[in-house]
Amino acid sequence: MERNQKERTKEKELSKSLEQKEEQVSTSGLKSCSNCGHKNESEAMFCEECGNPFGSHICPSCKAMVHPHQDVCEECGAWILTDQCKFCYSPISPEDKFCAECGNPTEGIICPGCSTLNFFDFCTKCHKPLTESALAEIQRSKSDPELMQIRSFIAELEELEIELEEDAKLSKTELMEMKLQEEIEKEEEILRQKAEEIRQIKEQLNSFLPPKETKKESPPTTINKKPKVNNFNKLQEKIKERELKRKNLLNNIQTKLNEMQSRTFDNSQSARRFFNANRPPGNYVWNCNFNDSIHPDPNNCGSPEKGGKWIIEYGEIKWRTHHGEC
Q1: Residue 132 is inside which H or E element, if any?
Q2: Domain range for residue 185?
Q3: Which residues have C-beta within 8 Å of that of residue 178, sequence separation ≥ 6?
């Protein structure tokens, strides 16, 4: 009897110990909300009880969720760090009109080219450099070996694009001339057939008339067929070769741009300066490392300091940015 009592006590203690362990396991993956104390799943981004975001902040302008290290809201484009200079991150107060560190206006710079208000070193609309830091970045990029090679490929591509445009015009002219020559040859063939019909009719009529002395008629004149000059096929082969060269150049440029993806920066504005100073001419968009999103440029990214790359826009890309629907 006494033994059974001890066994039951032992079972209760073991059961209680298991329950405590299960409780520890069940709560180990939960996190408490700093606002209301509610327990949430570890992967939750918002509190189930009060909606408070975890590991994030709220944009003061549009109330969208932003990460703590972002300086720009990707939803509305507002500057989040209201107590810091938009260009160098130095502390500022609401009364300051200019930053004491970099000298730039605290409200931003109006682009002299398109009158757009910017708080970036390059204009978001026309890409004009707006600050001394932007001009210095352009100068630095001129001596970067990787960027020099990319610019060399781009210059070669631009020359090739001009040649292809001229080839396209010439090809159109050649095609029109070829079609015109075919039409002329058809008309000439019709005239030859009619001349032959008239000759046969004359012979039939002469067979019914008495023979008489007539002047020897000269043989019917034949229309000399002009030798067909057609360089159209050769031109098409030439265009194909240049198109292949163009494709290889684009691949080389993209490969070099991809190699830049591993670069990281001290802050977001220095990253934006670098990538905008080295923006390739043409139809390019920017792919960030932050959340693998496609942006019109790094100005639209909340954390470009993590790096990214320019990519060639092969098709129609739609994204939502603070510039509106694109």
Answers
A1: helix 132-141
A2: 144-194+230-254
A3: 230, 232
